[in-house]
Amino acid sequence: MMSKALKGTFAAAAGVMLGLSGVAAAQAQDEEPTPSGASGSIVFESDGIRLHGNQNPQAVVMGIDLGDGEARTVYCIQIEVGLESDLIHAERPWDSIELDNPDALPLVLGVLLEGYNGNNAADLLAAAGVDGETIDPFSQDEVAYAGTQAAIWELTDGFEINASDPTEGEAGVDTAVLAVHDYLLEIAEPVDEPDFEPYFEVDDSEAVTDGTKVGPFTVSTNFDELTFSQPEGATVVDENGDEVTSFADGQTFYVEFDEAVSASVKLVTDSIIWTTPAGRTFVPVDAEGADVVGQRLILAEEHSSEYAAELEFEIVVEETPSESPKPQLPVTGSSLTTVASIGGAVLVAGVIAMVLMRRRAARADWGSDA
């Protein structure tokens, strides 16, 4: 008998890849590429507070503009390395960051997730029990930042804050900064490195054909959301048969073909939302995108971006001989596993290409090095 099986070819996948290359090339005409990940310009928000200890660094409050005009809070993770504030800073994975104590980064991320992220100064000071302190002439943001930076430097650089005279400020500032520092180091738990690259995978291990319906497929992705248009000749549905127009992590879906004939379906995405999470590290790069010596930074505030692109994910269904009395996926040949893995890999490659294309970022021309 004949049963429907899922099948794909490398020729089809290659065609999709060429389409993705075209998208990347078109985008590159208007935007400078970077070696990897997100990138942006340093923005100085205030001079911050000078800390006292075995070293006396300045906890300058700063952020990174990843291309949308907003400064997202970052921290220094190398006291004795100069900040190259005029250079673009590009995202890098942890294992490429040269630190005196690279093993400290999981605990640094734990501090970041509990510490000042640019929006929670009042809550952090209250949690540390110092929201009633007089901190003039400094702001709550500066105090919360200084306490968080002091905790980070203790982990990465062996900074030892002077408990009797921790800052350049008056008694209230000293008390508040020291309390935030102590609070964060007491409660922070190590957190693994966040995803550096986007991924999209489809689990087809339970997929079968049932009349015109094929599935289930289960999505595994770190995209916030991927939206798409319904394909011609088929409808993407959930387990209840309701139409689906977006994918998220853990989602299950089916493909319902209009007719029980050999067919293929292509899902063309409308947009992809990808988040650069807190804990990502950034390094200064030269005009060619190569890393240069300079202060490494770590992101305290996540950043979500929406990307529009025509990325295709293809499933092909065709008639194949089967000895089984019940229609099911073939054991041999080019199966859905091949197609799903090809489609997923192509999609991820395309998205990475998009993510690597840095938007134009206005360079900050004010402020000073840390």
Q: Can you tell me about this structure?
A:
InterPro entries: Thioester_dom (IPR013552). With 370 residues, the protein is an alpha+beta fold. The protein has two domains: 169 residues, no CATH class; 149 residues, no CATH class. The protein is 25% helix and 28% strand. Strands 1, 9, 11, 13, 16 and 17 form a six-stranded antiparallel beta sheet that branches. A six-stranded antiparallel beta barrel has the order 2-3-4-15-14-5. The longest helix has 21 residues. It starts with a strand and ends in a 14-residue tail after the last helix.
Q: How confident is the prediction overall: mean pLDDT?
A: 76
> Which stretches of 5+ consecutive residues score pLDDT under 50?
1-36, 320-370
**Global geometry:** elongated
SSE arrangement, N to C: EHEEEEHHHHEEEEEEEEEEEEH
Please tally the helical runs, counting DSSP H or I stretches of 4 or more residues: 6
Sheet-strand content, in percent, reads 25-35%
Q: How many strand elements? A: 17
Write the layout of secondary structure elements.
Elements: E1 2-6, H1 10-28, E2 39-50, E3 58-65, E4 71-76, E5 89-92, H2 105-114, H3 121-127, H4 140-157, H5 171-187, E6 200-203, E7 208-210, E8 213-221, E9 225-229, E10 234-237, E11 246-247, E12 252-257, E13 263-276, E14 281-284, E15 297-299, E16 303-307, E17 312-321, H6 336-356
Antiparallel strand pairs: 1-17, 2-3, 2-5, 3-4, 4-15, 5-14, 6-8, 7-8, 8-12, 9-11, 9-13, 10-12, 13-16, 13-17, 14-15
Helix pairs in contact: 1-6, 2-4, 3-4, 4-5
